[in-house]
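Researcher: Here's the sequence for the chain we discussed earlier.
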Amino acid sequence: MKIKFWGVRGSIGSPIRPERVKHKIEKVLALASPTDIQNQNSISKFLDSLSFSTSSTYGGNTTCIEIRDKEGNLIIIDGGTGLRELGNSMMAEDFGKGKGHAFWILTHTHWDHIQGIPFFVPLFLPGNHFEFVSAMEDAEKRLEHQFVFTHFPVSFDHYAAKKTFSYLPEGSSIALGPHITAMGKSVRHPGGSFSYRFTEDGKTIIFASDAEFNLEEMENIDTYIEYFANADVLVFDTQYTFEESLQKIDWGHSSASIATDIALRAKVKKLVMFHHDPSYDDEKLDLVYLRALKYKEMFDPNGNLEIIMAYESLEIEV
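Model: Thanks. This is the structure I predict for it:
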């Protein structure tokens, strides 16, 4: 399986502001020496030596991820603003000819997870087929409501691609094409949300965003540890710092330290920090990531768990 991130923010889109772009340029120029800009190779080497926040950006689009099986068949997870760019890239495939097919997993229908759907070009083309799969029984009704005229000028029926809906009861499994199976499990979040476990050839990716785990729940978390057990990749909600999570009980999100505790107990191989707070700029996210790594070192001296920070265009293969 391959997983690619198109939107990694939570709550609301947060594009980088012009003054932050200028700040990055100023910082890069201040750090550069004449030898760093002699030629293209030296420039590339210099940029690679910089911190992520200095030379790049984590991105400002809200939740959207793609998973591909070993034959390249597509699974879409959620439809935040990152979905628009995914759709544009899909137009170079069969989707641009009205011959595409994809499964579409919905975790829940808060705005930051569906904002991109009206602007998803492959959905306009007749002949394309999108199979929506969700542990929500009323997923179709929810999406139709997003497209009522008072919210958006085009109705859901106007999108000419074929749209079918399948209900996946919690704890049940469903085949998403010939190779991948998926299972859903509810997680704590205002209004409800579901995580999903994807398996292909014994490899597992779990997507668990918009999930609140706090100190109180950690005392009774055995069923979730079993669910997360031995995942090759666990994409987990780490929107808040630990200190903020203590002040925002019932807001529906977790922290990197809680995510690390869960990943270590479940013997996860790779933890991906996800659903970044829209108020965090790139430099703050760098600090959050470094704090997570230091926290992990205290409890994982052998380095069994790898932690990475999600950013737009990140690709992982398992």
